[in-house]
Design goal:
The protein has 467 residues and is mainly alpha-helical. 69% of the residues lie in helices and 3% in strands. It is built from 22 helices and four strands. The strands form two sheets. It has a two-stranded antiparallel sheet with strand order 1-4. The protein has a two-stranded antiparallel ribbon with strand order 2-3. Helix 2 crosses helix 3, helix 3 runs antiparallel to helix 17 and helix 7 packs antiparallel against helix 21. It is globular. The protein starts with 13 loop residues before the first helix and ends with a helix.
């Protein structure tokens, strides 16, 4: 293995690579629980089924990027892309779980074609820099908003649409049983932030696990009938039940049920369906591409691994691994697989080759058999992870030139519309449309390339034909 991955040539050791792989796994293991919990809210697929699908696709993607590109990076169902799948594609557009998997499969196939043909660069260049930068920040804010809702901290309000949940135990509208889970989420976020500041490895995972322990410990002591309502139901899981659910509810659903869009077409019409399909697939592809490119550059730059001309080594192979893993993920029953920015934790630990990826993949394989244990992690602990991931993703806004309205307006609208409309594609659409209009009215229409026009027109048609 050392010779295959050329460990010594990269100035590393087998022990360093393995420890780097373990560090990466610790930093991103939360995705197993968070992704499963998010998909379970659909009601048509279980927590266990998606947990197994997430683990298998993570193993495949991480092994591929290690073997093909020899990079110390790891892959799994991307945060943001899973929210897009559940809350936009399924809840907002009304597509079924299986229909959504078709869009992920098409995204993977298109990504493969773009990588093989070299058209990837053309699509990448068609998106204005401010919008590209704002996409991940907007998704981060959207994910944090979902986390706050899942924790019950942000609630619906008839007057203002959203409001803060009551913490007043003296008013009669709130009780300790409803308040303590919200406090647990808030404290867990603070704890993750403090551990991250202290550079604790796997801070998000430890925050979730600590939150889970505190949830059960405090609940059993202070909340009446807590055992029967919150503990007992989670202790009856069949140890291999998750694998059975995976086979029955997730694996292969993209082929057996996914291509039947008759219910959507009957309700909305064929023209609506075509525009929705194209724009949604395009949004999946763009977010996946920008996530992967940004992570590849960021992680490799942090480890001084870029080539002499400033490029990611074996970049096309890394992108191909990402695209193939996405196709495999759709077959397994989960959302788009992408390279995780948490891989930077392993790079910081000294990982320089694909051997680190093999170690991470091995741990994901082992974790596959721990689904019943993972299911004990309460929603409130997972919500803390969502909120903190939102914090991390917001960091990109610093790159937007806020002094230039031509950058600030598209960037702001991209960020703002995602959480406010509960739809990631609407944020991208308003960012692009505002960019084109500003260029037109400032006499710089020639700066808008053909690719930008095509993508913007498609998103504009989405509003007129699909709403």
């Amino acid at each position: 293995m050392s010779n295959y991955f050329k460990v010594k040539e990269h100035g590393s050791t087998v022990r360093t690579e393995i420890m780097a792989g373990v560090t990466t796994f610790m930093a991103m293991a939360y995705i197993l629980m968070v992704n499963a919990g998010m998909f379970a809210s659909l009601g048509t697929v279980s927590y266990g089924a998606v947990y197994i699908a997430t683990a298998i696709s993570a193993v495949i993607g991480t092994v591929l990027i290690g073997l093909l590109a020899n990079l110390p990076l790891a892959q799994a169902s991307g945060m943001g892309l899973n929210a897009f799948f559940v809350y936009t594609v399924c809840f907002a557009f009304g597509l079924s779980y299986a229909n959504g998997l078709v869009l992920v499969l098409v995204d993977g196939i298109v990504f493969i074609l773009l990588t093989v043909t070299g058209l990837r660069k053309m699509i990448f260049d068609a998106i204005p820099a401010a919008v590209k930068t704002a996409i991940s920040a907007g998704i981060g804010l959207f994910i944090a908003f979902i986390g706050l809702q899942n924790a019950g901290i942000v609630v619906a309000d008839s007057a203002t649409l959203v409001n803060l949940a009551s913490f007043n135990v003296f008013s009669g509208s709130a009780t300790w049983a409803t308040i303590f889970p919200m406090l647990l989420t808030i404290v867990a976020v603070f704890a993750i932030g403090a551990m991250s500041k202290k550079k604790v490895k796997g801070a998000v995972l430890w925050g979730m696990l600590g939150g889970a322990v505190a949830y059960y410990a405090i609940g059993l002591i202070t909340v009446p009938d807590f055992y029967n309502t919150a503990v007992a139901p989670n202790l009856t899981s069949d140890f291999f039940g998750a694998f059975k659910e995976f086979g029955a509810q997730a694996f292969g659903k993209v082929f057996t049920e996914g291509f039947d869009f008759s219910a959507y077409i009957a309700e909305h019409g064929m023209s609506n369906f075509i525009v929705m399909f194209l724009t949604t697939m395009l949004a999946f592809c763009m977010v996946d591409m920008f996530d992967t490119l940004g992570t590849l550059y960021g992680a490799c730059a942090a480890g001084n691994m870029l080539t002499e001309d400033g490029n990611v080594p074996n970049m096309d192979k890394a992108m191909l691994a990402d695209a193939v893993a996405t196709c495999c993920g759709s077959i397994c029953g989960t959302s788009t697989v992408t390279t995780f920015v948490e891989s930077s934790a392993g790079v910081a630990e000294g990982g320089r080759t694909g051997l680190a990826s093999m170690a991470t993949a091995a741990l994901f394989f082992i974790a596959m058999f721990l689904a019943p244990v993972a299911q004990l992690i309460p929603t409130y602990a997972c919500a803390a992870a969502l909120i903190y991931v939102g914090v991390l993703m917001m960091a990109n806004v610093r790159s937007i030139d806020w002094d230039d309205p031509a950058c600030a307006v598209p960037g702001f609208l991209t960020v703002a519309f995602m959480p406010l409309t509960y739809n990631i594609s609407y944020g991208i659409a308003f960012g692009l449309i505002s960019y084109v209009f500003i260029k037109i009215f400032t006499g710089k229409i020639k700066e808008v390339n053909a690719g930008t026009w095509v993508i913007t027109i498609l998103f504009a048609l989405m509003f007129f034909l699909t709403r």
